[in-house]
Amino acid sequence: MKATITHIGSQAIDPKEPMLILFDETATPALREYSVVQHFAEPGEITLTPGMTLRFDDQAYQVAAVGRMANQNLNELGHVTLIFGDEGAENIANGVYLTPHVLPELHVESQIYYS
């Protein structure tokens, strides 16, 4: 499954906070300010599991852990919180924990590959 980034909010990327909040194009204007908006070229079900790979253009990340609500929210709202760090004691229900622990370089038109 592939998505294209259509918008990056002015508050969406903070190098001090290694996470990205993704939404599909139904995100409200207030959410867009803090989010990366993605457009899915084709409808379909995504199931994220530990060990699979997410790519942002040519930057590959491995899924280390998936919160209990992440897949449902990703499929219903295009919404998930990508965390580039270790899973902590306070596991975020909508979180997907990725390695390496470095934010990807993104721009409008970047591709996200869920595979």
From TrEMBL:
One of its GO terms (cellular component) is cytoplasm. GO terms for molecular function: kinase activity; protein-N(PI)-phosphohistidine-sugar phosphotransferase activity. The keyword Transferase applies. InterPro entries: PTS_IIA_glucitol/sorbitol-sp, PTS_IIA_glucitol/sorbitol_sf. PROSITE patterns: PTS_EIIA_TYPE_5. Keywords: Transferase. One of its GO terms (biological process) is phosphoenolpyruvate-dependent sugar phosphotransferase system. The keyword Transferase applies. This is Glucitol/sorbitol phosphotransferase system, enzyme IIA.
